[in-house]
Structure formats: C-alpha cells, structure tokens
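batch_manifest entry 22 of 60
target: 4-hydroxy-tetrahydrodipicolinate synthase
source organism: Paenibacillus violae
requested by: lab member K.T.
priority: normal
notes from requester: please return tokens only, no post-processing; we will run our own comparison against the previous entry in this batch. if the run fails, retry once and flag.
--- input ---
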Amino acid sequence: MDFGRVITAMVTPFDEQLQVNWDQVEPLINYLIEEQQSDSLVICGTTGEAPTLTDEEKLKLIELSVRYARGRCKIIAGTGSNDTAHTIHFSQKVEKLGVDALLIVAPYYNRPSQEGLYQHFKAVAESVNVSIMLYNVPGRTGVNLDAETTIRLSHISNIVATKDCANTDQLTRILNDAAPGFLVYSGDDSNALPALSVGCHGIISVASHVIGKEMQSMVKYYLEGNIQQAAELHRKLHPVFIGIFRVPSPAPIKHALALKGIQTGGVRLPLVRVSEQEGQFIQSLFV
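--- output ---
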C-alpha cells in the first residue's frame, strides 16, 4: 500500500469548551486534502492529542474522517497505547470503520525490551487484517524501536510501513534490510529532505497543515532530480519545520492554522495555548 509522499498528522479541532468541534472536522479535512495536498491523514495521533481523547471521541472522529475523506486520501488511525490488550481491543473496533491502516506507537512509559516491542507489535498485527504502520518516537515514548527490531517486524505480512523519528543512520539501516516493499517515513519535518536522500518514501508531517503544498513541491523537485531546487526550498521552509516545535505541539500549529483562518481551537491540559510572545514568533515565520 502506498500512502503517498506527504502525510499530515491532523490536529483535532476543539470548540471554546475544548470539546471536539464536530462541525469543523469536514472543513479541516477538505482544507488539508484540497489546499495543502495531503496524500494521507493520520487521525488520533500525537498531533491529534490522542492521549486526552476518550475512546468514544476517537471512534467518532475516525468514522467521520473516513466518511469525509471519501476516498480522496488514505486514512491512517492511531490506535496504539502502552497496553497490548487495549491496543488490540481498540484496533479491532477501528478496523471495522474502514480505515486504510493503523498507526501503532511503541509502548510508552513501560520501556519494554526489544523482544517486548517485537511481541507487542506482532500480537497487534495478528489480531487484525488491516495494514499496520509502526511508529517510533523515542523522544516521547522513552524507548527506541531499534532498526533490527523494525526489520524483523517488516517481515510480518500486514506490517507495511514505519513512521520513524530517529536519525538517518537508523533509517538507512532499516532501508538496507527491511522486507521488499516496506515503506519508511520520516516523522521529523526538518529531516524530510535528508530522509528522502537515503531512500525514505516520504514524511509524516505537522508543518504540512500550513505548508503542505510547498512540501509536495520539495519532494517533487527531489524525485525529478532537481536537487538544487529541492535543497533551496528545504532551506526556505526549515524555519517553519523547527519553529512549530518551539513549544509543545500541537499548540503552535493550531495557532498557525488560526492565522490562516482555520479555527481548530485550543489544546487540552496538560498542554496549554501559546503565549502572546510565542504567538508573535509563530506569526513571524510566515511573514
């Protein structure tokens, strides 16, 4: 399965009471597909504030996303947790909603061994028929899904891709030895072009909420062999790649969306909105 080159990890829109703004889900999806040219959307991932969403909210949000996308892009649903049994139970529910794939994060806080990680992902994969994308984000989980473990998992038939926020050394090791057809995506916006240069398929992005078209152009330049143009565009976009993570995400990207007239509300505690000074900095990235 090809999820495209630029995938947006979608924010969850909230209203003034920080309840999910169901009326804003369809306009947001239309904007990301039509204006920002997202090839796929990750729903209920880190950027979607999954840790503060109830299972009921997640199920409704995923169901609506599949409906509103109408086949125009693929829908990847975040269903992972640090409890294997719950991950299996929830993944089986989400599978029935017609998603294209599940994004399963490495179990956080528990800090399992590499064998524990392998057995976790294997158990989840064997419990569903839908495609699975691994998600390695050591800065948030406290554990690295090593290249060797990812390679081992790539030989399970429905584990078809990984979103990996590690450095290009690890990405390269995965690319060298993973099963044929296994797709590697960088999960770090600022690493998008370097990741492409070692053979990654694309980027799962936060910045693409507001510069998705430009990121698609950068990828296109690279794939067409226009390396200098791709590098120039990467350097131009780099301040945005870095700046939207100056304070905990997704508060900055929600503020950036508001500057573009796309209202997605605030963030749920323990996250907080950007300060006035932080907001001015984010605005300066787009001047």
